[in-house]
Amino acid sequence: xxxxxxxxxxxxxxSLIIAASVAGTFTxxxxxxSGALGDRSYDVSHDVRTDIEIISDxxxxxxxxxxxxxxxTILVKNTGAENLKGSSDQIDILLDGKYQSNVSVEVVDGDxxxxxxxxxxxxENDTPMPPGEDHRVKMIVNGDSEVLEFRT
Length: 152
Prior knowledge:
Blueprint: H1 2-48, E1 52-54, E2 72-78, E3 92-95, E4 98-99, E5 103-107, E6 118-123, E7 134-141, E8 144-151
Antiparallel strand pairs: 1-2, 2-6, 3-4, 3-7, 5-6, 7-8
């Protein structure tokens, strides 16, 4: 009779040790998941509050070669709820599907690209574009993208 109680006691203690180790493993995993979700929610919130609008008129002639230098100039307004960095390393530009690295930016109406301010983006183009062709400029900032279609 005593041997049965002893074996039951040993099995009970072993099951408690196993349960405690499993609970510790789950707690660590849940804490890591919670931290990752918190980080991701901050990133998503940052992306959701970002909104830009290209306000250049493609028919005005001011987009391409306005100063006889073959450059493309577009005006972009920050219409979101978050101030953005008005620097070329924070903006991705695609011209006719090709990534552009020769891009300069300038905030038109202030020192920073705050909400409501306009950014002048100049894509330095070395080769002239033939007249009468359609082109697309896609601008991406914090996951928000806008497209401008124009004709040279």
